[in-house]
Amino acid sequence: MSHNLPFRNPMDKMPLQVITLPQYPTRQVSEFSPFAEIALAYFNCVQNVDFKLVEVTRVGYDISYPKSTMHVNFDAKSKSGKVEMFYAELKTPSLNKVDEKGIVIQGCALLKKVDTGNPLGISCMICHDKVIHPGPKDGYNVVLGDKFKDSRFWLYRPSTGLNCSTIREDTIRYMDKYLVFAMKAVKHLNCKVEADWELLVVTRVIDRMEKCRIIFHMNFTVKSSNFNNETKLCFAEFILPLFSGHSPDNWTMEKEPFLEVIGCCIMEKDANYESSFGRVCAMCTSGLIHPGPKYGYRVLARDDFAMYDFKACGNGVF
To answer: Does the global pTM surpass 0.90?
Structure first.
């Protein structure tokens, strides 16, 4: 006997479950001092200098057979007592045991900070930003030692960006979702400023999936009677976790409490603030206006995003 019952998605009644990354035991960077000693001995021999290791500061590695690759930052002191920063690459048959005969030094260099860093620089695939490398990404240049010029971290990735006139079709389909985002940002804005801002329209949205979350950058406009109902442009950043059994594009209002407003600000154009050396956002690269010298927008109210790349300038040395 059959029954004509309506189909139900089994996920409909399941509570939302946030996806989290597994936790792995971490090792202290000081455990890698013997590897740094070997890299520094190589550097001293090749450059005919005498540096002494002070401490290992950062380590990144991949585990592969027969030899693993290790990238390491360490500080070392010269005869004059000046402490300098170093970067080294090694191949080693074991990350736990130092085998001097089995270790191959790929290179070692003394670094100097020469630029604020460019978000268009390519990150190292081994370290994933755990280690400072020479090149445009971190803004360091090689003062003495191996140049690593064949490494990908000297390169730039192409500039890309989207806005509402060229944005992909699925984003337009989900514009109602972004209105919810913008309204939450306006509420965040009104909590700390003496004005009653009202949302007008969402103008640009760019998102990027990172680990177990999605980061959103958004432009939208607001107005307030306290400012003669003038239209003001805003920038906001949001984070939304991924959920088990749900597509990232599957928006429901059940997810709204998990949506976090990282920051929101009202911007004002200042032509004197604009600079061709202004940094582009590492996530958006172009097409979405951020506060900072690149587009010449100052923060008029609320969050200043002071520690972000797009608020900085570089001197264009790379």
So the answer is: no
